[in-house]
Amino acid sequence: MYVQEVKTASLGDRPVPVVVEDPARLAAFEARVAADEFVEPKDWMPEAYRKTLIRQISQHAHSEIVGMLPEGNWIGRAPTLRRKAILLAKVQDEAGHGLYLYCAAETLGVSRDQMTQALLAGKAKYSTIFNYPTLTWADMGTIGWLVDGAAIMNQVPLQRTSYGPYARAMVRVCKEESFHQRQGYEAVMVLAAGTPEQKAMAQDALDRWWWPSLMMFGPPDDQSPNSAQSMRWRIKRDTNDELRQKFVDITVPQAEALGLKIPDPDLRWNEEKGGYDFGTPDWDEFFAVVSGEGPMAHERLTARREAWDNGAWVRDAAMAHADKRTARVAA
Ligand code: BYC
Predict the structure, then answer these.
(1) Which of 42, 194, 200, 311 has the fewest Cβ atoms surrounding its Cβ within 10 A?
(2) Atom of ligand 1 minimally distant from the CA of 217
(3) Ligand 1, from 49, 55, 58, 59: best to mutate by most atoms within 8 Å of Cβ?
(4) Cut 0.90: pTM above it
(5) Which pLDDT tens digit goes with each residue over 63-92?
(6) Ligand 1 pocket by Cβ (under 6 Å)
(7) What count of other Cβ atoms lies within 10 Å of the Cβ of residue 209?
(8) What does the DSSP assignment read for 68-117?
(9) Could you give the 3-state DSSP secondary structure of residue 277?
């Protein structure tokens, strides 16, 4: 038993158990992580490490699955067969990413049903970005360019996250995200070089998606309750602000190449730091969206609840088939 002692801490007026780990095991674990060894499912790990990973990986999985909704809604309206095929492939990739991630989280002792129920009950989060509406075709290109671009920035370091199954899932996810980013950039490139109306549509999409994309990296470091411990355990390899800065530095020249303007009056190159200075996202809006107030939050969760209910017969049929096979083998 790895729990050496259970103390009681107070959360408001509710007592909650605090797990105090065996100091020797904890020190050995921290030394392994510091030496960049992967932690594997059957290895000993502190309870807080397991919980943090379940939270982060399941949120990541939910984001992939909820992220299929705004794009799925555009497959039938994509302007050409080529664009339709690309979008279809991208949305299918996202389903795959969700599945690898749910599998990675399951190795930590939580079931996919439990994770799904937490999402449907509004207890588990998914990325704030998917609580914004997709109004025009330019939004599809811009999501690929900025949203998948931000996702890659966050996920490339996660290929070296300390938990083996999560790190390995990220390798394939990153390859596919890279295609997603490029197809998005190419779609925006076509619009930006098109008619004045098309270029205006691309600019409007950039205006609406820029700030929500910066928010994808999470709150500023000094308001990020999980970062310090996650960095120490190498779950996260970079802080929220470090990744946000890298994203801005890479994306600004891409916007310039398109002839589009980043909607930030405070954006300017800072020679000294070798990066851009940029304005402050509206963190009140971010925290409101995190708590479920985004313009599309209700619609997204309703769609997921309906999908779960409508899929009940498939799950029942699969279970009945599995029971029949087991009975046949036993006979
Ligand atoms: N949205 O202490 P912090 C995709 C929450 S899918 C919602 O900094 P942490 C794509 C955070 O959970 C991309 N919630 O947290 C798919 C925490 O809440 P709790 C998804 C957010 O975990 C389809 C609280 O705020 N990528 O790209 O250290 C189509 C305090 O934050 C957000 C991932 O999930 C947010 N943006 O750092 C197209 C990557 N930010 O649970 C594209 C994996 C923060 O403590 N996740 N919160 O109450 C991570 O890297 C980290 O979890 C985060 C946050 C950087 C997001």
Answers:
(1) 42
(2) 55
(3) 59
(4) yes
(5) 999 999 999 999 999 999 999 999 999 999
(6) 55-56, 59-60, 63-64, 67, 94, 125, 127-128, 147-148, 151, 154, 215-219, 224-227, 230, 236, 240, 290
(7) 22
(8) HHHHHHHHTT-SSHHHHHHHHHHHHHHHHHHHHHHHHHHTTT--HHHHHH
(9) strand
